[in-house]
Amino acid sequence: MEDRRNEVTIKKKEIIPIDKELIDVYKSICKITYEIEKDKIENGSGFFIKLLKDGEEIYCLMTNHHVITKEMICSKKTIKVEYKFRKKSISIKLDPNEKRFIKSDKTLDFTIIDVHDIIKDKYFLSPNTKNINYINEDIYILQYPGGDKLGRSEGKIIKINDNNELVHDASTEPGSSGSPIFLRGKTEVIGIHKAGSERKKENYGTLINSIIEFIQSKNDKSKKSNENISIIKDNQKNEILCIYNKKEDEINLLYDYSWDIDDDWPDEGKKRYIEGKNNINEKNIEIYINNKKIKFNYKYKSNERGEIKVKFIFNKLLTSTNRMFFGCSSLQSIDLSSFNTTNVIDMHGMLSECYFLQSIDLSSFNTTNVIDMSDMFCNCYSLQSIDLSSFNTTNVKNMRLMFLNCSSLQSIDLSSFNTTNVKDMSKMFSFCSSLKSIDLSSFNTTNVEKMTDIFAHCSSLQSIDLSSFNTINVKYMHWMFSHCSSLQSIDLSSFNTINVKYMGGMFYGCFSLQSIDLSSFNTTNVENMNHMFDGCSSLK
User: Fold this and answer.
1) Dihedral over alpha carbons 68, 73, 75, 76 (to 10 degrees)
2) What Å distances lie between residue 211 and 25, 32, 388, CA to CA?
3) Cα dist from 174 to 9, 54, 67, 186, 307, whole Å
4) What's the CA dihedral at 314, 319, 323, 328 to 10 degrees?
5) Which of 63, 387, 419, 424 qualifies as a cystine partner to 400, CB 3.0-4.6 A?
């Protein structure tokens, strides 16, 4: 078997000097020095990445397995890591008995070591996880060839072997093992260089996607130990940028969880209080006003007027954003593109009563784990547009009052919504008085029990298709379409009302309603039908 650890210089050309456009990338590359025998020093390359481990972000060093082997770890050796571009170095003592996180695999030839506690400069590289054909793509490699200066060489991907091993022709030398491979013009890592074959005149690397898949497969096998690890796929900070157009003496920065819990509080309320207090505190969040760091309990002074820029930096992934910006009535704009919501379970009232917020882009949100979206945009009177196409609502149970009083909202695309587990849709669209139509064809309402006031006071609503609605478990329908004054006809032939108890005021104030098919309605268990058709003056 040939030894692929021999580096191969395929092209006779000089290492390309570094260029200014990649300064932050260069800061993430390091030289690794290790002693294999007494007085015998070897060099390798490596780079910094960021992992998400059990909800915590940790900075790690990534290199080849043959650079930092399991044998080296077991022998408790110390390796030296130099990021010479910044003229800094750290020493990592390898000890399997320490708590330092280590992940390694010989076949894929990679090792990842936690350096979160010993590295201060938090530069890291992001993986390119797109599933594309890299063959014939131009690449560049950043490396410490010969253990000397940081350099860059260029080449092409020749082929991808069956084991997801990439073959390239970029020049490498001893010391290049463990260096990152990039597509030309890009800054995301597509692979890690590992070896060369002198006989075949080829160089080899491992695709980063293979490493990610390997880590994910290990996650699946180790669920009993609750170990959950993933490589963070973007180089954005976990932060929120806000602009407040100050109109009051005081405005909220983040929701204040300082009140006392009353004995009358329901258990769910107490749980939310504890979650919020554990998440939103001085330890987990840094606040900057006009680029100046301030104390967490800061309150605006009466002489501070006009536009104020506020930045929140999150040092921990939150599990709750419950009423996070509740009552921020002076909030003019908010940038959530860098906010990591991977672990969030509760989004109840997150932006409730942000009266002057006109638009919001939530396309970067990961809502996979969210259970509660109730009151999320409640009383956002000025909100005109909202992109929810990226929302994964598979686990959401509560959408009560989600868009209540979004009176300026003219259209909303909910085609991506999975409502299979939702139980409460009460007042979900109440007082959305500018909505002319809503496409709810993707809604699965099999488990919904409450539809009270769901479309109440949608005064501009002219048509609505509810043919997909399964109402077998609905108990509450009272005031469901009340004051839908522009609605002329409605087809409810698909409704199963066998379990409905309350229908009072269901069509109250629908004075434009000319026809309605209630032939499928079963009112056997209905206890209240008061004012059901009051004000339906056009009904034939």
Assistant:
1) 110
2) 20, 21, 31
3) 10, 36, 11, 25, 56
4) 10
5) 424
pLDDT of residue 200: 80
- In the chain, what is the straight-line distance between the N-terminal and C-terminal CA atoms, in Å? 88
Residue 516, strand partner residues:
490
| pLDDT tens-digit map of 385-412 | 888 988 999 999 999 999 999 999 988 8
Q: What is the largest CA-CA distance in the chain?
A: 98
The answer, yes or no, to whether residue 318 has pLDDT greater than 60, is yes
Alpha carbon 457 to its chain centroid, in Å, reads 34
Give the C-alpha separation, 138 to 143, whole Å.
Answer: 17
Compute the Cα dihedral for 521, 524, 528, 534 and give only its sign: positive
φ and ψ of 219, to 5 deg? -60, -45
Task: Using only the alpha carbons of the chain, give its radius of gyration.
Answer: 29
Spatial contact of 322 and 272, defined as CB atoms under 8 Å apart = yes
Run of H or E including 276: helix 267-279
Cβ within 8 Å of residue 20, ≥6 positions away: none
CA 429 to chain centre: 26
Of the candidates 207, 137, 202, the one whose C-alpha atom is nearest the C-alpha of residue 171 is 202
Q: In Å, how far are 252, 256, 325, 333, 466 from 329, measured between CA atoms?
A: 8, 15, 9, 11, 35
Smallest CA-to-CA distance from 174 within 55, 59, 67, 22 is with: 67
Residue 212 CA to residue 49 CA, distance in Å, equals 12
Residue 164 backbone dihedrals phi, psi, to 5 degrees = 65, 25
- Asked if 379 and 350 count as a contact pair (C-beta separation under 8 A), the reply is no
Q: Tell me the residue type at 410.
A: Q
Task: Name residue, tokens 């069509």.
Answer: 507
Could you say which DSSP state residue 127 is in? E
Beta bridge partners of 102: 113
> Which tokens hold the place of 117?
């506690």
Which residues are CB-neighbours of 64 under 8 A, at least 6 positions away? 44, 109, 110, 111, 177, 178, 192, 194
Summarised one tens digit per residue, pLDDT across range 82-106 is 876 667 777 777 766 666 777 889 9
Which structure tokens are listed for 177? 């093992």
Does residue 243 contact residue 308 with C-beta atoms inside 8 Å?
yes
Return the SS3 of 145: helix
DSSP class per residue in 167-229:
EE-----TT-TT-EEEETT--EEEEEEEEEETTTTEEEEEEHHHHHHHHHHHHHHTGGGT--E
> Which whole-number Å values give the CA distances from 436 to 402, 407, 455, 484, in the listed order?
18, 11, 12, 10
Query: Which phi and psi (to 5°) does residue 184 adopt?
Result: -60, 135
Nearest 5°: phi and psi at 220?
-60, -35
* Tokens 């009563």 found at: 353
Closest CA to 33 of 9, 69, 68: 68
